[in-house]
Design goal:
SsuA/THI5; lipoprotein; alpha+beta; 3 domains; signal; ABC-type transporter, substrate-binding lipoprotein; single chain
Length: about 450
């Protein structure tokens, strides 16, 4: 269901909608976002909840003498945002990589009346933002086990792209469904698997309604989300776009400085579990938040175009023209090509008595009744910490030993290697390294 949330930035009656004339000298700004697509929170849910954009527009108004009215429109996917942008009813939108490309393709015929991608929200350099899950009682261990069965995916989404790439020729029947519909179909037995983007896989697994079959990071192909703007709006209101990008940076800095509070804020606004939001958006999270339009991400977008053409979702797209870093550079933002997640786990591991130094091995434990998570230097140290604390665990997070994907320790598959315990997101990946242990067995043997 779509929610409309309007923030009037100054006193007075403002009734304008869209980008046409407004009441008095009010300037309307319409933002399309996806509240539950939590890798866009710095340009969506978190940005709206913290009010950073409205604060910056108030400052802009003091300089320009204008009033600004922001309307937030919430959608389940990027497709309706694109439709609204084509109709001139949404000015700025945030969505995943495939929807971004479809947006650019469908508006490119409008020339300078089309759209441009102007920043990145969250990305994963290996592709872990998309995953395939099955029911907890499923006997499938690899994607090959789905041969001939029905799999739910939103056709044209990044989750669909991951599925097709990962299947490698294994034939399945793809049911084109919205994420919520697909989740219900999975639980009801209407489909054998669900291939979707965040936060659906993590939410279903955390609620014990599914188990992970395929981690998109196994593809080692970047996935990302970003911000797109109508070019006429960017041309007419460059100052407003600049303040939006600065506000996005405000939200990104807040998320990095206050990861747990940010996760709880997003959870409260969306109905998602805070533990699930923190899985993706916390330190060492599956998502890396950085506005930079990195060259590796640009190349990934270009490589996505042939797939979207093959399934008839786009005709053609000049990615170099569509991706425009001019507005971001104009704000003074310094872009970077570095792929390291700036939000890292730090601190002292209480169980092993050492400082967390290896980001690739670090984890966290969130105990019931505690307002902060506890860092763990290694997966072994995390297991020891859980045993020693004797407290109920809200969530414990460990990195996959092969891909680095942050995952729930309880739902990881563990293997003893050279005396240590290593976690993996999928059973198949764990089995390739040795005898697979459950979390309970790993905990007992820590």
């Amino acid at each position: 269901m779509r929610r409309l949330l309007t923030a009037a930035l100054v006193a007075g009656s403002l009734t304008a909608c869209g980008t046409g004339s407004a009441a008095g000298d009010a300037v309307p700004v319409v933002i399309g976002y996806q509240s539950k697509t939590i890798n866009t929170v710095t340009a969506g849910t978190l940005l709206r909840e913290r009010g950073f954009f409205e604060q910056r527009l108030r400052e802009l108004g003091r300089r320009t003498g204008k009033r600004y009215e922001v309307t937030w429109q919430d959608y389940d996917t990027g497709a309706p945002i694109t439709a609204q942008m084509i109709a001139g009813k949404v000015d700025i939108g945030s969505m995943g990589d495939f929807p971004l490309l479809i947006n650019g393709s469908r508006t490119q015929g409008q020339g300078d009346e089309g759209t441009r991608m102007v920043s990145v929200t969250g990305y994963n350099a290996r592709g872990a933002l998309n995953m395939v899950v099955v029911r907890p009682d499923s006997t499938a261990r690899t994607l090959a086990d789905l041969k001939g069965q029905r799999v739910s995916a939103s056709v044209g989404s990044a989750g669909h792209g991951t599925l097709v790439r990962a299947l490698g020729g294994v034939e399945v029947t793809v049911e084109n469904q919205q994420p919520s519909v697909g989740a219900s179909a999975l639980q009801g037995g209407g489909v054998a698997a669900l291939s979707q983007f965040v936060a659906w896989p993590g939410q279903l697994v955390f609620d014990k309604q599914a188990k992970l079959l395929y981690d998109g990071a196994a593809l080692d192909f970047p996935t990302l989300h970003g911000v797109v703007v109508r070019k006429p709006f960017a041309t007419a209101r460059p100052d407003v776009l600049a303040e939006f990008l600065r506000a996005q940076l405000d939200a990104t800095r807040y998320l990095h400085a206050n990861p747990l509070a940010a996760a709880e804020s997003v959870a409260a606004a969306t109905g998602l579990r805070p533990e699930v939001v923190y899985l993706y958006n916390g330190p060492n999270g599956i998502a890396t938040f950085d506005l930079s339009l990195k060259s590796v991400l640009r190349r990934a977008l270009k490589d996505d175009v042939p797939f979207l053409k093959s399934i008839g979702n786009i005709e053609e797209l000049d990615v170099d023209r569509f991706v425009d870093d001019g507005p971001l550079r104009a704000t003074g933002f310094e872009t970077t090509e570095e792929l390291t997640n700036p939000a890292r786990i730090t601190g002292t591991d209480s169980a092993c008595g050492v400082e967390v130094s290896d980001s690739a091995a670090a984890g966290e434990v969130w105990f019931e009744g505690e307002t902060a998570t506890r860092p763990a230097a290694t997966p072994d140290c995390l297991l020891k910490q859980v045993k020693q604390a004797g407290k109920k665990v809200r969530a414990a997070y460990v990195p996959d030993a092969a891909t680095g994907t942050r995952w729930f320790a309880e739902h990881a598959h563990w293997v003893r290697v050279n005396g240590g315990l290593l976690p993996f997101t999928t059973e198949a990946a764990a089995a390739a390294r040795g005898a697979v242990l459950t979390y309970e067995q790993a905990l007992a043997g820590a």
